[in-house]
Design brief:
The structure is a single chain. The chain is α+β, with helices and mostly antiparallel strands. Strand 14 (232-234) and strand 15 form a beta hairpin. The protein has 6 helices and 21 strands. The protein is globular and about 80 Å long. 17% of the residues lie in helices and 25% in strands. The N and C termini lie far apart (56 Å). The protein has helices at 3-16, 136-143, 147-154, 211-216, 257-269, 277-288; strands at 29-34, 40-48, 56-59, 64-65, 80-81, 86-89, 99-102, 107-112, 130-131, 158-159, 174-179, 185-191, 194-199, 232-234, 237-239, 299-300, 312-313, 315-323, 328-333, 340-343, 355-357. The strands form 6 sheets. The chain has an 8-stranded antiparallel β-sheet with strand order 13-12-11-8-7-6-3-21, with helices on one face. It has a 5-stranded antiparallel β-sheet with strand order 1-2-18-19-20.
């Protein structure tokens, strides 16, 4: 393992410790769309109440990575060498991925689960077989090609309870969603100190409660449909809906996690099945618009941990639309409406170090006069 990488990881850990805990934020939403040509498109939002300063992070093959052990130090955990190249978004300059896709089309992200995430108890003697919770995604994307491989691989490692000083000496509480090139989806959680891997037939994930509870909640909305309702007849009188949209009347529109789960489920499953993957990319952006938090809609008091204890507002810092058929990873930042496109097929998969790309281009506009 290169000393340069270890030093960089240690320095980044110290620099980020004041606000590391909210790396995966409170109101994230993700879903999967299927293209008529066999491809899949993944969409997700990242919300937060403090600037994450996320950068596009490009990780090559055959790179030594330092696992964070039970003492919170890089290198004392499970160290590994990357098998697959990956690209995605980090936070606060850290060499981790909060979201991303690898060269085999495995794609997914970390989402916050502060009320349910409890990691395994790992003794110092077993530290070398464990990693920190925020390393879950980077470990998965650089080691595995399919969700079945992830299932088997995560049975062999542990997620330790290494703590972050600024988060009341707690672990970063996240769960992970993953989708592979065949369309299989899983959710990985750590509940009551145990690994829980759940197949995800919906392709949707948000935050707490536990994923099984989110699935059980779907039945409460069995009346919803994307098909318009007929007028109601009462004693010969006709009562017509005031506009189109009657089939989804009652679809929750607030920002609570269970509400966002149901909204993402019905919006993603209502998309026409005739759309090819390239068209589903555009569709995903439209769906993500339903979860974009306008500045000020969620205000965080100074006592709220999601804002790092500094108060402020929670915003959609960035959104992702990833095409895992064509290996294209698209991004939109809060600061502008630019869509940044990264083609994994063109990346240097055999580079010697991690590459960080700042997404701060001036707003692009097209004049039509």
């Amino acid at each position: 393992m290169s000393q340069k990488l270890i030093k960089k990881m240690v320095a980044a850990t110290v620099a980020a410790s004041f606000a590391f805990a909210p790396l995966a934020s409170n109101a994230c939403t993700s879903f999967l769309l299927k293209g008529s040509d066999g491809g899949f498109v993944y969409g997700r939002t990242m919300e937060f109440g403090l600037p994450l300063k996320s950068q596009l992070t490009v990780i090559p093959r055959n790179l030594a990575m330092a696992g964070v052990g039970v003492d919170g130090k890089p290198g004392t955990g499970l160290n590994w060498t990357t098998k697959y190249a990956a690209a995605g978004m980090n936070g606060l300059g850290m060499p981790v991925l909060l979201d991303g896709m690898n060269e085999k089309g495995l794609v997914g992200g970390l989402l916050n689960a502060p009320n349910t995430a409890v990691y395994q108890v790992v003794s110092p003697a077993d530290s070398a077989s464990s990693i920190a919770s925020v390393q879950m995604l980077i470990y998965a994307l650089t080691n595995f090609a399919t969700v079945d491989e992830v299932k088997a691989g995560f049975q062999k490692i542990k997620i330790n309870r290494s703590t972050i000083p600024a988060y009341n000496n707690k672990s970063a509480p996240v769960r992970m969603t993953l989708h592979d090139a065949s369309g299989k989806s899983i959710v990985i959680e750590y509940l009551k100190g145990e690994l829980v891997i759940t197949d995800n037939p919906t392709g949707v994930m948000t935050n707490d409660p536990a994923f099984r509870d989110q699935l059980n909640n779907i039945g409460n909305y069995a009346n919803l449909t994307n098909v318009e309702k007929n007028p109601m007849m009462i004693n010969g009188a006709t009562y017509v809906p005031p506009s189109s949209g009657s089939g989804l009347h009652g679809l929750p529109g607030d920002y609570l996690s269970p509400s966002r789960f149901i909204r993402a489920l019905f919006l993603s499953k209502s998309v026409p099945t005739s759309y090819p993957t390239t068209q589903q990319v555009n569709t995903a952006w439209h769906i993500l618009g339903s979860f974009d938090i306008p500045p000020g809609a969620i205000s965080l008091p100074a006592t709220n941990a999601y804002g790092g204890g500094a108060g402020g507002i929670e915003i959609t810092e960035w959104s992702v639309v990833a095409d895992n058929k064509n290996l294209v990873y698209n991004l939109k930042m809060f600061e502008s409406t630019n869509i940044y496109t990264y083609d994994l097929k063109k990346m240097d998969m055999n580079a010697k170090e991690i590459k960080y790309i700042k997404l701060d281009k001036p707003l692009s506009t097209i004049s039509v006069n």
